[in-house]
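Quick one - first record:
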Amino acid sequence: MARINKLEDDDMKRYRKSITDYEDVQICMADIKELGIEEGIRKGMREGMKKGILKTAKNGLKEGISLDILSRITGLTPEQITQI
């Protein structure tokens, strides 16, 4: 608390805003759980991440990046990458 109380005005404003933002996220997450849509959001995020990984691998192939490097970057096997 002592370090927080020593913050300059601009830093204190940013600190307070970060606390407010964090609380807003917590409220939204509680609302999501209450509405029962949390699993749907998680599923959507997983699907979006998979699409992003596949797009990264596809773009890497177009740019001539080796299968070995793409495999390490994306976590996909070289076989999965060649099937894209």
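second record:
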Amino acid sequence: MNAILNRKSLLLLSLLTFSGLLKAETWPPKVPFSYALGMAQYVELCSSCHGKWGDGSDQGPPLMHVFYKRSHHSNASFHRAIMNGVKAHHWNFGDMPPIAGATEGDVKSIVRFVRWLQDKKGIK
């Protein structure tokens, strides 16, 4: 009985996806022009540690993680981390130093891009 239900569920999911009623999100997403500046600044200032798409690296944690959702880390906490650095508190990567050369405008654009990217990942 379970095998029949599983096959029916799989068939229904396939039909919904094929028909366009249920769209599978591709990753990485196509970045709209309005987020391009934030993406460029993120790639320049953040991606060496946090990964090209916020998926982390051996240098820093993934920003596409529920630890960084809005209700746990506000935009202001991202701002402080970029401008002032932050003590390690969720991961074992060590303290994050301030990002040399980052401006207030950079931070605003970067945070806006990261939040958009999180939305695409379903991290709210």
